[in-house]
Every structure is written in structure tokens, then in C-alpha cells.
Amino acid sequence: MTTPRLAILGVVLMTAFPAIADDRVPPVTDPVVIKECGSCHMPFQPVFLPARSWRALLHGLGDHFGEDATLPPETVDIIRAYMTANAGDVIGQGAGRKFMRWVAPNGTPKRITENPVFLKEHNFPESVWKDPKVVTKSNCLACHPAATNGRFE
Amino acid sequence: MSSRSLLAIALAISAILAFAADPRRDAMLSEYAVEARRLDAGFTSFSAQRGETLFRASWNGGDARTASCTACHTADPRQAGRNAKTGRPIEPVAVSVSPRRFTDKAEVEKHFLRDCKSVLGRECNALEKGDYITFMAGQ
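Output (C-alpha cells, whole complex):
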């Protein structure tokens, strides 16, 4: 099959099965975000939370889910600028749009894994979460090897 | 000198550098030594053995999931580890396997702050940091 035909087929499939397109989000491209956020966990894509959530999270790095994730102010500024510019309520497409539907107009969620969209697609028995390679619900890479590239198939 | 012997010397030097020695790590240890001496006038030198004890000990002050450095780094620092809280893979801490370890002071300070609070429930002092790096540099 020629490339243009493949591309057309892709568009047709994505229109027919929006779930395929919805499993993808724009990957993180900022090197500071990749390095600093990625030094303890996968650098989560900004579309999963609204801008005000990223602001709140970056304001409280001294107690980041119980961890002292303090960074120099100039580093935090770079991360905040990137995460808020690409946040779910700013970008508003694909999986991000789906996630934003559940966020209250003034809600400031902090855990991506509490969003009903996440919960619906991760309705597994407890044994799955107890798998030693999973460790925590936020460990996307345990089951989605291309998660860092924004692909959650 | 022939170009062949020059090449041999260059290869020998790069082999030594690749193994462990790094002037940035040496400079870092010197800085920690100055600090350690300030804290304790009786300080003489860092000890790989004390560093190993620090690495393997179980502590009560920190997060229960990370009672010891080994919770994430495994009992063998030459092996890859896994963050006990996030599941993220961690490259080995042993310098023989990861020669870039302990070469960037800001990075080292950042991780000591986070990890010591997480494991010991407090910040580490210069003596502990120097001992830990000395242990890992020989691993």
C-alpha cells in the first residue's frame, strides 16, 4: 500500500474509532521538564491537568505527594511556563479534552489517577496493582512502554 | 614519539578515565572534606566502609517504603534499581558501571537532600555524603 493510502486509512480509522486517537497525547518536549520531572517519575504530559493544577503542584514542591522535590526557583519557572502553556484546559484536544470534561470549573485536581477517565480505563482487579513492577498507579510505563512518547496504547 | 605509541597512551588514559577517576568527583570530595572538618576537627578522611554501612543500614526516621538506600538501589549498587515509590528504573549507583555518577555537584546535592529525607528522615551531613561517594566510587 502506498504511503498516501496508508495515511488516508489512518484518518478513516481514527474517525471511525476515536479511542485510537484518544490514547495519544502530545509528548513532553521541554528538556528541563524531561530531566527534572523525569528524575523521579515519568514526566507526565501537561494535558492531563488544567493549568491551575500545574501551578498548584509547582508551588508546593517542598511537599510533593510527601516528597521534598524542591528545585531552584529559576528551574521551577521554566517547568511552570511549559506545563501551563500546554495544559489540558489550554490545548483541549485528544485525551486531554476527555480528561478536562471531569474537572470542575474551579477544581484543582492534583492526581491524574483520580480522574474518572483514568479510573474507567483502569478498572483492574487489585492483583494487577499489586504486581511488583507496577508499584503505583502513576507508573504508566509499567504497562504502556511508549507512554513517555504520549502513546498510551 | 611514533603516532602508534601516542595512540597507545591516549587509549590508556581514556581507559583510566572511563573506569572511575573524574576530577569533578575529586573536587566534590575535597569540598565535602572541608565541610566535614568544620563539623568535626578530628576528621581525617572519608571511609568506604562507613559509606557501605550507611548504604545498607535500616532507618526509622524516613518513609517506611524507603527504610534503606537498598529499597531503591538494591543490595548490589552495580545493579539497576527501581524507585520504591514511583516504580521508575534507576541506573546503577556504582561508579564502575555509571561513570557519570557524582560528577555534578548540584545534581548530587539535590538527590542527597531528597533521598536522605526519604530514607533517614533528615538531611545527610558532609561526612555521610563523602563516605557514601567514596564507597560508590570503589564499587
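The mean pLDDT of chain B is 91.
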